[in-house]
Every structure is written in structure tokens, then in C-alpha cells.
Amino acid sequence: MAAEKAEQVLVDQWRDILAVHARTLCEVDRVLHRHGLGASDFEVLDVLAGDAGTDGGCSYRVQEISDRVHLSQSALSRLVARLEKDGLVTRGMCSEDRRGVRVSLTPRGIDLHREVLPLQRAVLARMLPGDPPATPPPRSAPGDFGRLPPQRGE
User: Fold this and answer.
1) Helix (H, G, I), strand (E, B) or coil at 100
2) pLDDT tens, 72-110?
3) Distance of CA 66 to the CA centre of its chain
4) Which of 20, 55, 92, 104 is deepest in the core (most CB within 10 A)?
5) Residue in 58, 75, 54, 57 with CA at minimum distance from that of residue 66
């Protein structure tokens, strides 16, 4: 009986996480739609802008982006092709490995990211419960789904 109750608590926690994720993703999509972006589009732009200097000169291999935005490589390739068609990113051959493709923001992509960044962050602040931790938990390696950081109050 106690084991079943503990299992149900886990299932309820999991479903709560899924519900918060789904509501937040829908709200981000809704807010960004009027700018021609979806949540996944924004995540790619945000990754590319995250380490860029003021000139937006940072580029990533598609595999590196895939690890950070949690999309399959084929889904990400389609998304990057769409962003390139819209003039927001460029793709080029990877100098280290000619089989690889590097992606970087265009000036238009930089401008659009700067414009919508406050909107996305406002949605996160509104939709996600609780105060952010004083220090962020360490980032796990891509694909590392080991122990999750402790919950608040643990």
C-alpha cells in the first residue's frame, strides 16, 4: 500500500511537470507567433545568441544545437532550413570536419532575437512556479539524464 502511494506521488509529480511544460510551451508559441516564430525557433535563436559577441559571430554545429534544444537531428535540420529561408540564420561547412554544418545568426536573426527575448522571458517568469534558485544547478552533459537537481525544500 505504501509503495503504491509513493508510486502515485511520483506519477502525479510527473504529470504536473508535463502540464507546466505544455502550458508554458503553448503560451510561448502564442506570444511569439505574431513575430513569425514558434518556441522551437526561438530556442535555436537563443542558443545561437547565447554565446555570441555583439556582432553575433558565434556558430554551432547542428549536433551541438540538437543537444541543447532537445530536438532530433532531422527535426532540427528542417527547422534550421526554415530559419535560413527566413533570413535568420546561415549555414556553412564546418572547417574542422567537412561533413559537418555550422549555423550562425544573421543580423536579421540577431535583431529578431533581441526583440522577442523579453517576451519569452516574461512568459517564463509568469508561467513557471517559484523563485529561481540563487545559483543555477550545474548543467548536465548533453544526453545525461541522471539524477535531477533536488526540489525546492529538499
Assistant:
1) coil
2) 888 999 999 999 999 999 988 766 666 678 899 999 999
3) 9
4) 104
5) 75
